[in-house]
Amino acid sequence: MRKNIIRLLGIALIAVILAVSCGMSGSSSSSISGTPGGRPGSGPGSGHGPGSSASSITYSGAVEISTSETQSGQTYASSTTDESALLVSTSDAVTIENPTVTKSGSSDGGDSCNFYGLNAAVLVKGGSTTTITGGTITSDASGANGVFSYGGNGGSNGSSGDGTTVIISGTTITTTGSGSGGIMTTGGGITKAYDLTVTTSGQSSAAIRTDRGGGTVTVDGGTYTSNGLGSPAIYSTADITVENATLVSNLSEGVCIEGKNSITLIDCDLTATNTKCNGNAKFLDTIMIYQSMSGDADSGTSSFTMTGGKLTSNKGHVFHVTNTNAVINLSGVEIVNNDGDVLLSVCDDGWSGASNIATLNASGQDLSGTILVGSDSTFTLNLKDGSTFTGTFSGNITNAAGSTVSTSVGTVNVTIGSTSTWVLTEDTYVSSLTNNGTLDRNGHTLYVNGVAY
């Protein structure tokens, strides 16, 4: 009897160890790893850990600027944990020209780093408008974002900030640690970036990164490259607009939008090679739109808009929507799908709490491939202004691990505008069709609400 009890305890212990190991798959091995909801682009420790309140943080900088000042050609360096190399903490205007910034000294600050800027190489807070021109900023530590604009709203999503604004141009930013984005904006902060060269290599280290409390980010020109797991080129819990930029993700999604937030790309070149899932994610994709329910983003309509430019997807689905209501607007985008033919999927993934709903508005846009709509999901396609869709709909969906997610198509609504065309590539089932343009059956049958059209 005693032996049986010991044996059962041993089996239980092994099961616990395996469960923990699986739950942390893809997470950073640092002490700030692990996120509620398993957000694919989240910072290690986001949502729990020390520093959950901005008021509890003691900020320090190797150099601290607390009044209006202009500095040129200076070196700022810190190897101390939880200390920024340069801390701007004032409501006054500050100008930094051609700086050399180096930051080492990893942090286990969790939320304090992700939400409030602790341990960043350069941290701007307090309402300052800080202008940084040229120079280099290098971070070689965990929890050490390159340039951090914290707007002071305490991580309250949807709240305005205190006016903190970072205007940065012509600067090279390089980070290597986990939880270390290139340009980071939270708490209602504002970031305006021009012609930057940003490279990140750590886990959960998007080149253009935001977190709780959101803010506004505008980027014009430059190159933004991410190399780490769970590190898209752009991670949005804010309103982000990027123009005339090159965006590259070499392991993760190209961009992620969480919850009621947005990304707008204008004349950008985006390339992603998403070869490994992170967190709860079960699909490989280039554009991921979702809601983790971690509290780091309000629920609501997520928005992705791309006008002009080129979108290259080297692995997985081009678009993937789960656990949110997403609106995708495409106009004149060159889409290159180098892995199969799935243009978009909307279905269950590793999250719950909301519906899987997606709308794709195409204006002057060529689309091709299969659109996957899970049995409990809803998709709407609006073709207008000379758009063409060559493809079909399906509900037969398996995830990256080969597990079945859906076997029948959900609700699909299609509207074809007067100058637009849908060319079928297989027999296809939809829930509703409004056809004011051209439907080319191409030898196939279209069923509308179960009836051959």
Helix/strand-derived category reads: mainly beta
Number of DSSP-assigned strands: 42
pLDDT averaged over residues: 90
Q: What amount of the residues lies in strands?
A: over 45%
Q: What helical percentage do the residues reach?
A: under 10%
Low-confidence stretches: 1-37, 43-51
Choose one word for the global shape. Answer: elongated
Main sheet record: 22 strands, parallel
Kindly report how far apart the N and C termini lie.
Answer: 70 Å
Q: What value does the Rg take, in angstroms?
A: 23 Å
Enumerate how many helices there are, as a single number.
2
- Whole-number tally of structural domains: 2
Report on this model:
- With 453 residues, the chain is mainly beta.
- It folds into two domains: 58-231; 253-453.
- The chain is built from two helices and 42 strands.
- It has a 22-stranded parallel β-sheet that branches. It has a 15-stranded parallel β-sheet with strand order 1-4-7-10-13-15-17-20-23-26-29-31-33-37-40. A three-stranded mixed β-sheet has the order 38-41-42, with no helix packed on it.
- A hairpin with a 2-residue loop joins strand 41 and strand 42 (451-452).
- The longest helix is centred in the first third of the chain and has 22 residues, at 2-23.
- The protein is elongated and about 70 Å long.
- Mean pLDDT is 90; it is low at 1-37 and 43-51.
